[in-house]
Amino acid sequence: MKPIPEPFRIKMVEALRPSTREERVRWLEEAGYNLFNLRAAQVYIDLLTDSGTGAMSDRQWSAMLRGDESYAGAESFYRLAEAVEEVFGFTQFVPTHQGRAAEALLFGIMVRAGQSVPNNWHFDTTRANLETIGASAVDLPIPEARDTARDHPFKGNIDLARLEQLLEQARPGQVPLALLTVTSNGVGGQPVSLDNIAQTRALLARYGVPLFLDACRFAENAWFIHQREPDWSGKPVPEIVHAMFSLVDGFTFSAKKDGLANIGGLLGVRDKAVFERVKQRMVVIEGFPTYGGLSGRDLEAMARGLREVLDPAYLAHRVGQVCWMVEQLDQAGVPVLKPAGGHGVFLDARRFLPHIPQAQFPGQALATALFVETGVRGCEIGSVMFAKRDELTGEMRYPDLDLVRLAIPRRMYTNTQLAWVADGIVELYAQRERIRGMRIVEQAPVLRHFTARFVPA
Ligand SMILES: *Cc1c(COP(=O)(O)O)cnc(C)c1O
Fold this sequence. Notes:
binds pyridoxal-5'-phosphate
């Protein structure tokens, strides 16, 4: 494929500072080999995350000037409410400062210690929010998702047979709700089909369990449905989004992803009693229900972003950028997760670095080597994030995949910059034998990837 030209032109620029290899070696050492500890100015092209890092449009910036900063009942809230109803078909919702606040609110009301919450794959904060309550987060990806080379149009699907087994074996009341994460970040930004959402709902209904979407990348998921699901191919994206949300009892959302905003989140629920409790709890931890920990201008940016993200020209370019990069890397023999996901390129670190055992964090080794050689910052999604000691046997349990995610911020980097990144990865692959494993010297008990320090093994 050829890259699709950017469907925008640039009105304002931010200078990038190139660095030398010597500087990067020193910075990395000072950062304890943890890329989260770098200063952003030390990074040349920052693909750490697509969360809140995108460029806003001229229309979003101008809408922000209309931000109504009234404490209660601000006009900005009502403009957001219009967008939420138009895009998602939900009338009961609250804004939150981020997606994780929506999770904490929802779980605080609906989930208790000892319960289990199934999901196609839990995002790290979602898992942490459940585990802090004492509930268990059960990941049920389809088996195809474990094989990074295997082609499948909807690798994000939940494994319905395993979900049924879990529901069958659960004690009454043990499963308070189920989640579907669209798209599924942990298996590479892979989509969930509408058919899978519908079947999940039907199955859960038999057991009286409500279904919620972790909807952070709902538009990218809808775009894949538009392109890949025969029953929906060519249908307008807004119609597909409506179909997705019509099947669920509620959703959590981070506006830092498909809200095209730098901050913000949403929690939508259909149940009136739950919604009342959300609003009560909300005031204690997030703010009054019409501003939810945000300023009026943030609500305006989100309201516009929710509509802009559905533009097919935007989606074709966005998903096209990822797809084009994956194709370049694949053709050069670099082990990369296929098919391309929606928001990032995922390198398969165990196939990239077969000489490094999982106990020495191949993903961390690859991500740090890429920074040293190119100044590009990616993110390990693998054993640093997910390996856990089994409480019964004392053995380390490693995740199926050790990936390095190069998340592509929305509307930020040009095709030329991304082509340069792809070239850098191909060069690194040619000298992969020189890359060494890592050892952890300091770590926190939860979400250790944010703060752990490493040394070369
Ligand atoms: C980012 C994200 C979250 C959490 O949202 P924040 O705004 O970062 O708190 C939850 N789930 C998924 C799938 C995400 O990508």
